[in-house]
Design a protein that fits this description.
By secondary structure, this protein is an alpha+beta fold. The chain has twelve helices and 28 strands.
Length: 523
């Protein structure tokens, strides 16, 4: 028994000795390593200390903006009677036929499929929803034209009021060019208002909130950023340069405010791009600098926006092939593609193919710049236009006229035409043309014997790439007049790969139809 006890004590002593030795060995190694590290000390005295930000800072900012703006945001309800003979206002401000599939597709993509006259039987009562923002305590409200257009009755529900409490509104003025409208209610009390901010100061990446009534859900707030500025969704509309945002905008948001972090309205939510009638992160708002100008004009004595014009047409974007064909250096002018008959420019001697380089001595860089310079002038005033023709600079005085008196509605000329009498498709261009007969010219609003009509365009061809489409009338190819299919064949047969090809085509119908350059470099 004693032997067993002695063995246990000896085992414990040995174990303790092993542990002691291990600790001593570890301490020695640690000391050696520490001395090595001390020999290579790093000075970090300049390192900034990290701090934890207040977690409620950002969320509080959003909620405060919403509280400031929501009282001024209203729900707009409209009622109208469906008439199949009516022509629905398209999102670009022009009128389009109800049966135009391309216009319906455009409407659905940019307005979330909110429908319109023709979506219901003849004589049916149609109801729609939208939003608006109060900008004057007397009851003046800014919204979109397409929210109130052709409505028989417009009613407004104020924030905080029960849904059953509504005020009848009257239209003060509308502007189809910007899709804006001003309406007014008499609430017999001073109403909360929203402050308009400076949209030009917004930068891509800035936070914004969208407030409105998507799908009738009033006072809905969504957050996002400014995705882009100066975005155009329809190149034919010269006064629609939108702020793009990824803040969720849905049907019913139209007319509501887009707000910055200073609780200022920097845009009016107007349209969305969608493939399924819902938000897909691409929304568009009319910037406040445009809203302010339009509002001030609409509440003025004439209740309309008067914009100056000289009666010329041109491409929205610079086309290198067109510039080379007409001897223009990039960014040094705008080449005229159409001249309004009996308009100011024609009376002053300006012709198709002239390149406008300056207005009152100020250089013109692009189409938007030209529009801004001309519309800034009052109708009736005169401007000095500098232009280049055949390499020589000319000057002429042009009297500004009211744009609305120069241009009427333009409708699509892409009628379904048979291919009878059409020339075979040009292999290089991929386009089939036919002579412009008297009957066909009348249907297209063109002049018989001047031009050829596009009968077909081959998918994936050069013609399709540059924008030629069925029903367009080709007037010139590379500055050479085309009066027959034979002319077209003779001119195009001489074209070679790598050569610039520019078409002058007729667009629209009637006396106000314009012409447009389409061109590119032949593969």
């Amino acid at each position: 028994m004693n032997d067993l006890a002695n063995k246990l004590r000896a085992h414990r002593l040995a174990s303790s000795l092993i542990i002691f030795c291990t600790l001593v060995f570890g301490i020695l190694i640690g000391t050696i390593i520490q001395k090595g590290v001390k020999g290579k000390e790093i000075n970090s005295s300049d390192a900034a200390q990290l701090t934890m930000p207040a977690p409620q800072q950002l969320s509080n900012a959003f909620s405060q903006v919403a509280k400031n703006i929501e009282p001024a945001v209203v729900n707009i309800n409209t009622e109208s009677t469906v008439h199949t003979s009516r022509r629905r206002r398209a999102p670009n401000g022009d009128n389009g036929d109800n049966g135009d599939d391309s216009m319906q597709d455009f409407f659905d993509r940019f307005f979330g499929g909110q429908g319109g006259p023709g979506a219901s039987p003849e004589g049916a009562r149609q109801r729609s929803l939208g939003s608006g923002v109060i900008v004057d305590p007397k009851g003046y409200i800014v919204t979109n034209l397409h929210v109130v257009d052709k409505a028989d009755r417009i009613q407004v529900n104020l924030a905080g009021d029960p849904p059953t409490v509504k005020y009848d509104a009257k239209v003060i003025g509308t502007d189809s060019e910007t899709d804006l409208a001003v309406i007014k209610i008499d609430a017999h009390k001073s109403l909360p208002t929203a402050k308009l901010g400076n949209s030009d100061a917004m930068q891509v990446g800035d936070w914004v909130l969208a407030i409105g009534s998507p799908f009738g859900l009033d006072q809905t707030v969504t957050a996002g950023i400014i995705s882009s500025k100066g975005r155009s969704i329809d190149n034919s509309r010269q006064f629609q340069q939108f702020l793009q945002t990824d803040a969720a905008i849905n049907p019913g948001n139209s007319g509501g405010p887009l707000v910055n972090m200073n609780s200022e309205v920097i845009g009016i939510n107007t349209a969305i791009f969608t493939e399924g009638a819902g938000s897909q992160g691409v929304g568009f708002a009319m910037p406040s600098h445009t809203v302010i100008d339009v509002y001030n004009a609409l509440v003025g004595p004439e209740h309309k926006v008067a914009r100056g014009s000289i009666g010329v047409g041109f491409g929205t974007f610079a086309n290198p092939a067109v510039e080379r064909m007409y001897g223009v250096k990039g960014g040094q002018g705008v080449t005229v593609s159409s001249v309004n008959p009996d308009g100011p420019a024609e009376k002053a001697g300006i012709k198709v193919g002239d390149t406008i380089t300056a207005v009152n001595g100020q250089k013109v860089t692009d189409g938007n710049d030209l529009v801004n310079k001309i519309t800034a002038e009052k109708p009736g005033s005169k401007v000095n236009i500098a232009y280049v023709r055949g390499g020589k600079e000319e000057h002429t005085a042009v009297t500004i006229e009211d744009r609305t008196k120069l241009y009427g509605d333009r409708t699509s000329n892409n009628d379904d035409q048979s291919d009878n009498g059409a020339q075979p498709a040009d292999a290089k261009l991929g386009v089939t043309v036919r002579d412009l007969t008297s009957d066909l010219a009348q249907r297209l609003g063109a002049t018989a014997g001047k031009g050829v009509v596009v009968a077909d365009v081959k998918p994936g061809s050069f013609a399709e790439d540059i924008g030629l489409s069925k029903g367009l009338v080709i007037l010139e190819v590379n500055r050479q007049p085309v009066n027959s299919a034979d002319d077209f064949k003779r001119i195009t047969s001489q074209l070679k790969s790598g050569q610039d090809v520019v078409f002058l085509v007729n667009q629209g119908r009637g006396p106000n139809a314009g012409t447009l350059f389409l061109g590119g470099t032949l593969p």
